[in-house]
Amino acid sequence: MKLLFEPDAPVQILPETLQETELLASDAVSAKLNFRLMSALPNRDCWCLCSGKETFSIRPDSREIVFPADLGPEAFCYALRVASDGILLDRGSIPLHCAAVIAAGRQVFLFAEPGGGKSYFADMLCEIFQGAVLIGDDHVVVGGCITGNRVRRLREAKREMLGYARNEGSVMQQIPAKKIGIVLGCTCARCAPVSSVQRRRELICRASGGKYLLQDPMFQGKRYQIDEIFGCAKKEQYQIKLLDFAAGFDSFFSVSGSFEEIGWYLKEIIDPERR
User: What does the DSSP assignment read for 18-38?
Assistant: First the structure.
């Protein structure tokens, strides 16, 4: 497998085996990973992915990504996202575990723990606001533009998955200036603005917004340290970038309650004149 990382673009991947081709063609992978397929090897330097033995390392000098051997599809996808996010971070982008929607002339970022409603409420916003564009509901990368996973999971309010649908706005060139951040929770009904940048970052982290570079992954019973994978203080680097990102919101809210209550709060936050 070959990978190409370019500024303000999704990761481009060229599969080299039938197994890799089938894996990358699955909706399950496209719903978790922000990438595009290459049809041929470009005339630019690509990274090479290979398997090792109980080894997970990123080697910038040789442009090698080394995975532990015999990873299953889910673990392989997770490891690929960890590697991609770290390399994208080095290129000035901020990779996030969140949903991103353009609605009512605003960038809206929804953060929640797995099963907390990112996909459901991103879909809801697209139904409510005419012309809304769902960029991604899981793997969002922000740089000079915003890109997201091409396929989203359709969920009902009970959080059960109904199937998959395509994200029409996976790449945004014209980005609205106003940016809103919303962290979703499931405690008692409340909607609280958050002005402290440090607190915003803390809430994003609690909602798993940076889990792929802040949580040490485990594969086949072995825990791999993020900083050791990349050979540098990657967690600290990400935290600094995340703080800059949190400072860039025009408004930021912590919202909790039932799905019905959260939906009402979201409509009020994004377009208070819409009643």
Answer: HHHHHHHTSHHHHTT--EEE-
pLDDT in tens, 176-231: 778 999 999 866 778 999 999 999 999 999 999 999 999 999 998 999 999 999 99
Neighbours of 66 (CB within 10 A): 19
Is 90's pLDDT higher than 60? yes
Q: Are strands 251-256 and 178-185 parallel, antiparallel or unpaired?
A: parallel
Structure confidence by residue, pLDDT tens digits, 29-66: 999 999 999 888 877 789 999 988 789 999 999 999 99
Domain ranges of the chain: 2-93, 96-270
Count Cβ neighbours within 10 Å for each residue of 80-107 and write b for 16 or more, e otherwise.
bbbbbbbbbbeeebbbbbbbbbbbbebb
List, in sequence order, the alpha helices (H) in the chain: 18-24, 27-30, 73-90, 118-128, 197-206, 211-214, 226-230, 234-247, 259-270
Two tokens, residue 123? 């879909």
Q: Tokens 């994200």: give the residue.
A: 167
Cα separation, 218 vs 154, in Å, equals 28
Count of CB atoms situated within 10 Å of the CB of 120: 24
Q: Rounded to an integer, what distance in angstroms lies between the CA atom of residue 44 and that of residue 40?
A: 11
Question: Of 40, 147, 30, whose CA–CA distance to 91 is shortest?
Answer: 147
Closest CA to 33 of 175, 167, 126, 229: 167
Instruction: Select from 253, 231, 234, 250 the least CA-distant residue to 242.
Output: 234
The pTM assigned to this predicted structure is: 0.92
